[in-house]
Amino acid sequence: MSNRFAVILAAGQGTRMKSKLYKVLHQVCGKPMVQHIVDQVGTLPFEDIVTIVGHGSDQVQTQLGDATQYAVQTEQLGTGHAVQQAAPILAAKEGTTVVLCGDTPLVTAETIDQLLTYHEREEAAATVLTTFQDDPTGYGRIVRQDNGRVARIVEEKDAHASDKKITEINTGIYCFDNQKLFHSLQEVNNDNVQGEYYLPDVIEILCQRHEKVSGYSGGSAQETIGINDRVALAKAERLMQKRINEAHMRAGVTLINPDDTYISTDAKIGYDTVIYPGTVIKGKVTIGDDCEMGPNSEIMDSDIGNGTVIKQSVVSKSTVGDHVNIGPFAHIRPQSTLSNDVKVGNFVEVKKSTIGDSSKASHLSYVGDAEIGREVNLGCGSITVNYDGQNKHLTKVGDGAFVGCNVNLVAPVTVGKGAFVAAGSTITDDVNEHDLAIARSRQSNKEGYATKLNQKKQ
Ligand code: UD1
Ligand code: MG
Q1: What is the pLDDT of residues 343-385, one digit of tens each?
Q2: What pLDDT, in 10s, does the model give residues 144-176?
Q3: Ion ligand 2 neighbours, Cβ < 5 Å
Q4: Which of 368, 152, 62, 375 is nearest to 70 (CA)?
Q5: How far apart are the C-alpha atoms of 341 and 309, rounded to whole Å?
Q6: Which ligand 1 atom lies nearest to the CA of residue 139?
């Protein structure tokens, strides 16, 4: 195996997306397109990975970090010109270079590896990854020689009617002998309809030099679609989602309706977990075994234990233990930790709080900036009054405490272990362990007064 290098083209604006966001940063299943490519390439042994950046250079570099090197293309003069920007890093090196586009997010490492193996076995100067598209509109068409080798690639805009009938297309993914690539690029001109320096022109240049140019039609047509507009973006999303969902199902997760379940590429889900329709799992999420998610739950960047149920609820940037019951209609906001066997019922919001083992907030509560111990009962409508208009304050409730219905805990305040807070209390002072606190005005009954009132009305 010779040295291997990868060049990823990501400098274009993406005019056809009609977007403020640079094309390669548009997301597919919650991850920018170019990140998908870099992640796949990153699993293979490349000596150098160089991403060509231009439009949105800062954002693209922030996204990809040090997973790749960068070459800047200040003016977007075409894909050939883009590759040339990698010359200072690569041109002097010997080996094989794979070129990929940042807008083909579905391509797998497996296909890239097969292309490399084919190219090296063929001892070709260049190998184009091709596929057959039922509707090849928009793609470069592969023109073959009589001996079956690739002669040239014709761009849609430069194609004659007869070329347009060709259904074998250029995926925009190629392998090159590195030195031959950079030599040929110097000969590419911009004499075409778009006035651009086309990378595909290298193919014709190599053919004219009697170099061997191969076409490898290994990848699936779906895997190599190029995303130039939002219609293609939606298609990529569907295809990627299908791939992710099928992988989870094969790994022991039940999806009741895979067509209506959205799982990010970075989610890990355990055996025998059941996911009901309308559920969206975003970002880095781990879910344990035997859980029930949904229907209609949204889980973002969170860790969920085993045997936990989350129905019609939102959980974001939080940690949830084993056998926890959330929802229906609960909202667990960032920086919350729910320990094992906790119950957070309907219309309960939890924010930046910890709730200890077996504690319950079953109905209509707000728990914000709070440390709730084990086996605590937060009665219906009990709330932490955490905000004084300027600052947030902490509420602590000790193990085994019982907070009655409709209690306001005005923070900063502590309710000690085993204490009891009577329903309807507004607690402004700490309650010591095992004490009873009542903080409400006394009821007085006026004998027969209701009857008097009724008589007055008549
Ligand atoms: C390109 C190919 C076409 C192929 C298709 C596959 C060319 C001329 N055409 O067309 O044969 O069928 O991909 O999807 O190569 N880019 C730069 N700098 C530039 C121009 C583009 O970095 O100056 C990057 C873009 O960000 C993009 C990639 O190169 O990631 C491809 O460019 P795009 O404009 O999408 O080319 P296509 O029209 O799709
Ligand atoms: Mg494209």
Answers
A1: 999 999 999 999 999 999 999 999 999 999 999 999 999 999 9
A2: 988 888 999 999 999 999 999 999 999 999 999
A3: 103, 226, 228
A4: 62
A5: 10
A6: 12
